[in-house]
Model the fold of this input.
Amino acid sequence: MGIDITTPYRLDPTQIERFARDGFIKLKHVLSAATLAHYGAEITRLTLALNTQGRPLQERSTYDRAFLQVMNLWEHSALIKAFVLGPRLGRIAAELLQVDGVRLYHDQSLYKEPGGGITPAHADQYYWPLASDRTVTAWIPLQAVPADMGPLGFYARSQSVQFGRDLGISDESEQKISANMARHGFAFECGAFDLGEVSFHLGWTFHKAGPNTGTRPRAVMTVIYMDAQMRMSNSLSAAQRNDAAQWCPGAMPGDLIATPKNPLVWAA
Ligand SMILES: O=C(O)CCC(=O)C(=O)O
Done:
């Protein structure tokens, strides 16, 4: 298979049902090796050029040991813009969310360096000023992710759990959310990713990742999609106000979120 970010990926109805039930799904053969090499080289170049991390791993906080993080790469590169707005991934997002279309919330690269630490347990929507739960993150490894590289793991069916929704990524979120998930018997699915495999998780699904104990960086691109009809929530926490100012500037509580930073990616 050549470079392809356009042709539809055929989801079957059982996969859509499984996503609705579990709050996440891992899909194989979403992107070809050629596609990942083509766009991945530019994503890596920009991640290394734009990240602002200057400290050695041992001197960083738990959050900063988890990964190098660069956001909205699509605004820096026409090639990455094409990737992030690609209809193949966007259509999967819309079909899994069971909505008529999706917009971009933001993208980010997440590179877990060799020796990089855990990604503490959390739910992404803690940070997002979004009024409904129709949001999904595509987690797109640029290489295979074996167990020792820190693949993303998911607490299946945790998307309706309220406990822990008020915790940002921290040692506290790791301790309290992991303990709560264990106490209530939520299954934690944390297997390796094949090359070309992509996971999708809802904004309220709890997830985390182990450390990178291997010798190569765990290079990952993510794209966060939201229902094309998404409105800004009427009551925002400080973290959500900060996100709103960055990723949908000008949109006000209650507004349809359709700023220039939130292009339509796919519509039926
Ligand atoms: O890549 C990671 O380790 C964490 C990713 C994550 O939490 C996310 O994409 O929502």
About this structure: The two ends are 25 Å apart (CA to CA). Residues 33-50 form the longest helix (18 residues). DSSP finds seven helices and eleven strands in the chain. Residues 158 and 184 are 10 Å apart (CA to CA).
